[in-house]
Amino acid sequence: MSLRLAIFTLSALLAVQNLWAGGSGLNVIVVVNQNSTNSVQLGNDYCELRGVPPQNLLRMTNWTGGAIQWAPDDFQTNLLNPLLGMISSRGLTQQSWFVVLSMDIPYRVQDSTGENGTTAALFYGFKTNGATQSSCSLPDNTSNSYAYSEMPFIQARPNTAATNSFLAMMLTDTNLTAAECTLRRAVTADDSYPTQTVCLAKTDDPFRNVRFTEFDNSVFENQVIGHLAVLRTNTDSTGFTNLAGLQTGLFQFAVPTNGFVPGALADTLTSYSGDLFEFEITDQTPVLGFLESGASASYGTVVEPCVYTQKFPDPVDYFYEARGFSLAEAYYQSLLNPFEGIFVGEPLAAPFARPGTGSWTSPTNSAVLSGQCSLTMSFAAAATNLPLAQADLFVDGTFFQTMTNLTPTAGNMLSVTVNGIHISYTVPPSATLSTIATGLANAMNVESAVTHVMAYPVGDRVELQYLNVSVPGSTVPVTATASSGFGAGLTTGISAARPAFLDSSATGYQFINIFNSPAVGDWLKVTFTKTNGTAVTLAVTNTTSGTTIGQLAQSLVNLINSTPALQSADGLYVSDFFDADPYGQAAVQFFVYAATPGWPASQILAQWSASSDLAGLPAGMNPLADNVGDLHPKNHLYISAGVTSLDVAFALDTTQLADGYHQLTAVAYEGTSVATQTRVTRNVMVQNTSLTATLASAPSGTNAAWGPPLTFTVIPNATNIARIELFGTGGSLCFVTNQATANFVVSTTFLGLGLHPFYAVVTDGAGHRFQTPTVWYRILPLTYLSVTGMPPVLGWAAVPAYKYDIQFTTNLLVPFQTITTLTASNSSVQWPLPVTGSTGFYRVHSEP
Predict the structure, then answer these.
(1) Residues of 123-145 as b/e, b for ≥16 C-beta within 10 angstroms?
(2) Does this model's pTM top 0.85?
(3) 205-218 residue pLDDT tens
(4) How distant is the alpha carbon of residue 343 from its chain centre?
């Protein structure tokens, strides 16, 4: 073969997606460090893949201090204040919920009063550690009121935030390729409904497995809604593959490269896992390991947090995710005190959200509008229990106005029947989903003596727990219906998660804590009364000087676990024994478990006693049901607002817009706390005055090389021009005043690699405005093909995660054909050329 010609071509591609669940690109502010080409490129790619409007990108221009740590003043000066100012000045206040920090931005905020994760500081402000200035503390103002709320974030922002609050995540890694991989995998999670297992792993590490007491609640809540993939297990292994999630508690471990499917949440409870780039120092597995294994989001602490489960995600996050919340919403709702931690990953991924469908009726695409114009569109809900309640209009990516908002109608009647007992609730005026849930729960609890049901309001949901241990929950039916009552139409909905209560598969337990050092003659005693009425009494007495409380308690535990009368299915056992004596404390703790899962088996009674020198132990006679909330049979009631078919008619006053070219986006929201979005767009032209303008650009085509500048020429059709302004990624790029035409030169190195939109706005002396059509450029590396070696190898500089088609022809008069496609794993690609002995022509074509 003789190599005659190599041609390199690249094509621009605008990503278009219909699913915008749990928030969308409209609701994200992307922050890039302008001094890092990696940060800028990753931010640009995020904007493209998530449909983030160009005005939603913030360039952090002055920070050159690295990607690890900054002081609160640096955080305030370089990030928070510019962010708040940008949101205000660009009119983004009503739509800014999420913040994505695009690598090479410090992840830790630190001074003498404490250390916080940067994402936590954006969420609710920098929190000090109180008078002790110790990270082993839990100051009151670090509590997150959004946690466990099951509310839309915009209605339940944390009450300890001093300024605007954001669901912030850091998208980063040790290299750009890995960060790009996380982003692209996470985007594919939307609408994926994974069926793979979520593993809640209780390890042998007593300091780091402490979340295991929260596992049963997550498993149970997921089972109630039919999501059966959340499982608990006892293991130290991290060699799983294709998990939908993992919570574990280990110090140091490795996870396989294919550990997780897109959309997975995965983390470990250990100190310093949030030290993203200092794992050589802390010697603990960093959260980036989970992302590199395929997870879409993770969390870790940036300082020694001590064993506070409140500082780590509750496994109920998998229930929130299964409801349809985005990863950021699920994670922040599951963490009560996030101040010492960092959230990493992609915030918008929502594997279980169920979007509706939508279409425009009028205007038609590319229609010319003037004066008052009627916009009409139709949306359909994904299911009858997921109605649509609100529709907003965005113009060019910025919130314009709410077109319709169907709140619960006063007078609507909700009826719940439990085991033949009817409870009715009338929706009061000005009700919200959460106030309805509270009112209905109160009405149900009035009848609890008859129904044996307690109701607990949680956001738009009412959790029902059945209290009669002698009756299986599976035999207790639950129905829920809504009617218009005396309301003007029916916009309030209610549905039960299942037709009857679900019985628990959790095992009942009792937690025992004993402390102080025993003297000779001190004793421990317990009497167990089994469910058949049989009583078993066991006791141990210390006969040796120097015996520790751990040794004495271990003797009693051994006796319990070896007593034949307690070994049957209606018996019990002791596990999770922890002796604190090696750590300088005269204390011991352990759990007593029923031998059989379920609420009835937990009704074994235990009465503990000890000699006067010893303390602790639970007082009185109690069942093995410290976790009674996980043992009661459960069901859920879900409150919603809206209709399943939402027709919207909106009168748009086009004189409020600049003349010229605009994109109208209609967003319909699911009428539950999840508020899944359904989004449709129309491109239109507005013409109310005679003002027009053209935007010409160079180079020609849709691609530009990184390095040489872009040039834009704006020519209005009038001469009385007050201002000509060019906009692109990051908002306004440049402007001139009092000129009839304008020539702009834009640095491609400033914009960074990626896809960029450009448009101009012309304002004349009378205040009339005209917006030009948008021009798109994909800025790519200035790339040359090379052929080296023998046999020859074709090489070129590449963009990580981009796909490259290698095309071939034997005759330049014949079209090229793709012979293989490669995905760049780093910044260069090499491909061996086949040697055939004949003449051939190659070119490389790329689309991301």
Answers:
(1) bbbbbbbeeeeebebbbeebbbe
(2) yes
(3) 999 999 999 999 99
(4) 9
